[in-house]
Amino acid sequence: MCAIEHRDLLSQVEMAEAALYALDDQDDLACERFAFVKSEYSDLLALPEGDDFAAELDSRLACALVDAGKYSDAIELFQALFKRDELDDKQRLQLYFGLAHLRTGNLSEAQSQLFEAMSGSDPSLAQSASDYLSSISGDPHLGTRLT
Which among 123, 122, 128 is positioned nearest to 98, based on CA atoms? Predict the structure, then answer.
């Protein structure tokens, strides 16, 4: 109720709601909610002080798009995100970006992003990237069959 008068707070609440849908594997609903926040609060996101929030929103939306199987849409967002000087959780984004490329059959870009993710500091993400890289070399047609 308090957030209604404060759009900046309400935008955070609505992004958190979308994130909960993503955590609950309701990928299409998460994508819709993230896209709604992006549209509804475009004025706040365009402000210099909204830059971090915009990057976080785009990164969450891009990952949700991958989870929902909307790889081309995700790739567009990732391309814009990776033009930024700094990214929070870059290794995770590289993994998802690589997976999106893998699923669309762009193996050279997939390999590049997955190799970068494999070199990151989070061992779990590095292992996932390594597993996907191994899959590419083991089966060149795998890009359409990974689960």
Answer: 128
Q: What pTM did the predictor assign?
A: 0.86
pLDDT (tens, 9 = 90+) of the chain, 147 residues, equals 455 678 889 999 999 999 999 999 999 999 999 999 999 999 999 999 999 999 999 999 999 999 999 999 999 999 999 999 888 899 999 999 999 999 999 999 999 999 999 999 999 999 999 999 998 876 544 443 333
Do 136 and 125 form a contact (C-beta atoms < 8 A)?
A: no
| Residues 47 and 98 placed together within one structural domain of the fold | no
Domain region containing 122: 89-147
Pair 117, 87: CB distance under 8 Å: no
Number of domains in the chain: 2
Last residue of a domain, one of 65, 85, 105: 85
| Residue type at 119 in one-letter notation | S
CA distance 66 to 59: 11
